[in-house]
């Protein structure tokens, strides 16, 4: 080896040495800087002088258990709600995102209603490129992105007056349900399955003006598509906890196939409804509302179909799982609490089989039973907002970008407001008890300008079908299945579910 070669080798070894040193040094520097940055992020609430829960994970803040164990959002929120309970607000972290839980009921009212302009947006946003129909749901729309207009399109088809005019929408599926029950000759029924079928038929009928055929023996594509929509996933959890990650992962609620299914169904129904004299449905009512609204481009036929489909997807997505779940747990609670069921039946029997929508809407005890199940099993266990304009609300000064949550389910289960909250007790809703409580203690349909758009539909659906069932059948414990109190152990993102099978039996009553 020449002396030139040996110098070259020495230089290369020296360079390798320097490279490793530099790489190690730089990596260490980056880790230290990242650590200091995260530490700084997790001092957010301390800097703002807000009482808070310390982050227990450098990456996940306070929500590590949601992603790595069986813990659910509801128990995390209960924990924060009960921590230093006297404080009106409590800060915590979802990943590095500081979130403020508002516990004080007057302050919650200010956030949801009186200061709506500063808190008009949901905590999450959906990209129209990734999930066009979810992005067009009023739920996801921001104040400045046609939120008001898309509510206005759906509102005329969801008023009490309109729904009362077409009882067949509810009564035909009820008849099919009875036939299904009667043909089974006393078998046990699983309520989640039964309620999904009824909800499918009513939504198909009022939404698109078609039969859902969920009780039919032949395969129903509508029923299959409806029941396959999943509202529980880590994607949804990410959507609310970490907007950045969920955007990168491109999480969507409506898959491509489902979006195509709904577009196709709407297109066919729109064509069929042109010039038809049949009873109206939400599709026709909202299509007319869209045509009258300057904000939507209706000159392009495909765009018009997309707008109509988006409204119907909203009706389906926001209305199917919620009403179906409440229907099944209410029937189950009535089976578990036979004294309540008997009292309810006495009230219904006074109508002497004259179960019109107007008559059942007036039944006080039915309303109390429904409120009670909505309190205990509220589908949306919290309301979330992002602050968009600076706002001073006394205990805390809100800044644009602050995420705020109102812990609905923790409020509903607070013994200070509802004694024995774990017990299904419709008396919680007697006129006397209602008067004694703060109005913000019942938040199952939300509050303020973003309040549930489908509450008339949900109440009428539940009241007419539950009262008809209680009038015609006794709901008794199953013969061949176990039945236990409901466990509320699955609550992904904002919707709560029970993963339990809920079995009951129906015994026909003499009319
Ligand atoms: C038992 C059934 C239902 C419950 C408990 C329920 C509950 C809620 C709650 C709590 C909110 C407010 C969310 C917030 O403020 O952040 C909401 C919003 C909404 N609900 Fe419902 N809902 C039910 C059924 C329905 C149905 C049948 C529809 C059908 C159209 C519907 C459509 C909507 C829409 C579009 C919004 C968004 C409103 C907006 O942001 O402007 N919901 N619902």
TrEMBL record:
One of its GO terms (cellular component) is endoplasmic reticulum membrane. It holds the Pfam family p450. Keywords: Endoplasmic reticulum, Heme, Iron, Membrane, Metal-binding, Microsome, Monooxygenase, Oxidoreductase, Transmembrane, Transmembrane helix. It is found in: Endoplasmic reticulum membrane; Microsome membrane. The keyword rRNA processing does not apply. Belongs to the cytochrome P450 family. This is Cytochrome P450.
């Amino acid at each position: 080896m020449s002396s030139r070669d040996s110098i070259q080798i020495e230089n290369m070894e020296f360079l390798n040495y320097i490279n490793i040193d530099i790489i190690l040094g730089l990596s260490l520097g980056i880790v230290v800087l990242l650590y200091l940055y995260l530490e700084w992020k997790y001092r957010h609430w301390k800097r703002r002088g807000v009482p808070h829960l310390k982050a227990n994970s450098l990456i996940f803040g306070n929500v590590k258990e949601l992603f790595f164990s069986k813990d659910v959002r509801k128990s995390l929120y209960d924990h924060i709600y009960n921590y230093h309970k006297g404080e009106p607000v409590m800060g915590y972290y979802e990943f590095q995102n500081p979130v403020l839980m508002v516990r004080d009921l007057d302050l919650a009212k200010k956030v949801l209603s009186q200061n709506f302009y500063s808190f008009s947006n949901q905590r999450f946003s959906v990209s129209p490129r990734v999930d066009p129909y979810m992005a067009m749901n009023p739920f996801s729309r921001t104040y400045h992105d046609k939120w008001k207009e898309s509510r206005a399109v759906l509102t005329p088809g969801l008023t009490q007056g309109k729904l009362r005019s077409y009882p067949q929408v509810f009564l035909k599926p009820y008849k099919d349900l009875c036939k299904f029950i009667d043909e089974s000759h006393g078998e046990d029924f699983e309520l989640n399955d039964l309620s999904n079928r009824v909800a499918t038929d009513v939504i198909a009928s009022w939404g698109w003006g078609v039969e859902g055929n969920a009780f039919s023996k032949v395969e129903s594509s509508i029923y299959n598509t409806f029941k396959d929509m999943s509202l529980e996933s880590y994607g949804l959890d990410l959507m609310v906890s970490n907007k950045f990650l969920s955007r990168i992962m491109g999480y969507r609620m409506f898959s491509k196939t489902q979006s195509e299914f709904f577009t196709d169904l709407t297109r066919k129904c729109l064509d069929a409804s042109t010039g038809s004299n049949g009873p109206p449905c939400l599709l026709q009512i909202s299509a007319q509302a869209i045509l009258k609204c300057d904000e939507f481009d209706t000159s392009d036929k495909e765009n018009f179909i997309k707008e109509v489909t988006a409204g119907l997807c909203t009706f389906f997505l926001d209305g199917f799982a919620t009403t179906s779940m409440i229907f099944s747990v209410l029937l189950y609670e009535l089976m578990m609490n036979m004294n309540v069921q008997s009292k309810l039946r006495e009230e219904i029997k006074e109508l002497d089989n004259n179960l019109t929508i107007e008559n059942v809407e007036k039944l006080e005890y039915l309303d109390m039973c429904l409120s009670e199940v909505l309190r205990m099993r509220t589908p949306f266990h919290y309301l979330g907002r992002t602050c968009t304009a600076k706002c001073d609300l006394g205990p805390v000064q809100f800044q644009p970008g602050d995420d705020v949550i109102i812990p609905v389910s923790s409020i509903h289960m607070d013994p200070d407001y509802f004694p024995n909250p774990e017990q299904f007790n419709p008396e919680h809703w007697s006129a006397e008890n209602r008067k004694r409580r703060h109005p913000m203690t019942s938040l199952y349909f939300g509050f303020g300008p973003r309040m549930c758009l489908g509450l008339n539909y949900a109440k009428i659906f539940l009241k007419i079908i539950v009262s008809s069932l209680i009038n015609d059948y006794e709901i008794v414990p199953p013969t061949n299945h176990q039945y236990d109190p409901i466990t509320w152990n699955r609550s992904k993102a904002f919707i709560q579910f029970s993963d339990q099978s809920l079995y009951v039996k129906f015994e026909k009553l003499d009319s």
